[in-house]
Request: fold
Amino acid sequence: MILRQASEASSCSLTLVAPAKINFHLEILGLRKDQFHELAMLMQSIDLCDRLHFQKRVDGQIRLGCDIDGLSVGDENLIVRAAYLLRKKSGVENLGADIQLEKKIPIGAGLAGGSSDAAAALKGLNALWNLGLHKETLEELAAELGSDVPFCLSGGSQLCFGRGERLEPVFLGSSSIAVLLVKNPLVSVSTPWAYGRFKDLNRDSYLHAEDDFEDRRQRLREQPWLNPINLNHPLPLRNDLQKVVSAEVPSIRKALEILSNLPGVRGVAMSGSGPSCFALFADLESAIAAKEKNRFKFSSAGLECWCCSLLTEEARVKR
Ligand code: C5P
Reply:
């Protein structure tokens, strides 16, 4: 979402937000020829957001700064990789930018913070540099950067198939559902490790045929609690990585236990490859009340908490 663009120098600077996501559904179907997993997911943006400020440079340099320590701002950072990839695609070598990242989404948390920042960089620099590249082109570049980056380009509520890059937006209605998100700040989980561990333990039950993959996709599309989301019953949240990752990470087991026992909770799961976990509530007031009442329980377990709403609309550009 582009929040602000300096109007007089119409394209000299702009600011975007980059929302985190959670997984309502993460189902691992099988292994692809490229060694990525074939997935069926329902991903959902939430209003826990990083912010990226972009300013044009005339000397062709691409520079990243960040307001927290411990995050590399060098060439390996996904934002910088996105900038170089976009510039290469444009064919204009002297495009430059200063990018300042305000980091709010926890790192290595299963919330796609890095992917969302990369998606914001593609969108922001496409606007800053007046490239006019279409969504389809940005999605192709996004897929080169990471499996979750295409989803993050437009966010909202989407089914994600393939390795995550085949997107089908879904209608969840104007839902008041709120999220209580928790994470131990001292713990992070490597995504390759999580998928590798899952593969070691489950590869015998992988599906192989495209028809079988498609059956599972269709089953997800037809879930009765979708279109719009139906909170009358506890949501059948699913994350296939949860069992294998939580078996190795005690703070995830503790988080899931605390969240599952909160009154009024409508569903509990780990997000992505963890270690973030979340509980769904009927509305934000209930989520905030649960957070406040259990403040001591969360802090004793070393868990940080956030109350968030769902972002159901595609991010829009504001000039
Ligand atoms: O695409 P991304 O960089 O997010 O993937 C990180 C790692 O997670 C991959 O290298 C792979 O080990 C694993 N992964 C996977 N199947 C997917 C997505 C990710 O096995 N669909």
